[in-house]
Amino acid sequence: MVAAEFVRSAARADQFPPEQAREFAFLGRSNVGKSTLLNALLGGRKLARTSSTPGCTEMLNFYRVGPDMYFVDFPGYGYARVPPDQQRRWRGLVEAYLRRRRALRLCFLLVDARHGWMESDLQLKRWLEYFGRPYLVVATKIDKWKNQRERHLGLAALTEHVAADRLVPFSALTGQGVKEIWQAIRNT
Ligand SMILES: Nc1nc2c(ncn2[C@@H]2O[C@H](COP(=O)(O)OP(=O)(O)O)[C@@H](O)[C@H]2O)c(=O)[nH]1
Ligand SMILES: [Mg+2]
């Protein structure tokens, strides 16, 4: 199992750690299952906090994973009741990271399999493309697809905005997708 530890939180660009490791960023709406995914990747240890209520952490969290990688946990977005100045701070922080971070190798954009693409997901996707950041889309909570038909319709909706070979279906309940995500990280 890969060793992992919290490094630091950053609310501003000058708090980002030195660029000494290959970085992998995890982005998604509040409650999409980001913390759960990170914990699943790291062998089920509770490294990142999970919650059932949408949170609005405003910081990037850096985790050292193995000897030469950082996982970067992004603050969730898409939470309706976030005041405008907080939204501005969020955008500033995310943009500062995406624009300048040379250590960033690959982004994982998490989308809830049940809801499909929301406008804020598409906005973030456009942002990743604007900054030329390679990314994979992770469809989370696919165990909530109750049958083949829902699975088929869900996948069809998701692939309207991303090629199938850039889409990783994931479930923390079954562990599906963990292997594929690690493979993508190793191959980067
Ligand atoms: N059924 C199911 N529930 C999940 C899965 N991943 C996360 N959840 C649940 O979704 C809620 C939000 O998860 P969390 O990881 O805290 O989301 P975050 O806000 O994106 O970090 C929690 O109640 C999780 O237990 C999954 O793959 N399947
Ligand atoms: Mg979380």
Specify the number of helices.
Answer: 5
Major sheet: arrangement of strands: 1-3-4-2-5-6-7
Ligands, ions, cofactors = guanosine-5'-diphosphate, magnesium ion
Question: In total, how many domains does the architecture comprise?
Answer: 1
What is Rg? 16 Å
- Report the top-level CATH class: Alpha Beta
Poorly predicted spans: 50-56
Question: Would you mind describing this structure in some detail?
Answer:
Helices cover 30% and strands 23% of the residues. It is of the alpha/beta class. The chain has a single domain, classed as P-loop containing nucleotide triphosphate hydrolases (Rossmann fold, 3-Layer(aba) Sandwich), CATH 3.40.50. Strands 1-3-4-2-5-6-7 form a 7-stranded mixed β-sheet, with helices on both faces. It is globular, with a radius of gyration of 16 Å. The protein starts with a strand and ends with a helix. Residues 28, 30-36, 50-52, 55, 76, 140-141, 143-144, 171-173 line the site of guanosine-5'-diphosphate. The site of guanosine-5'-diphosphate has 20 residues, from helix 1.
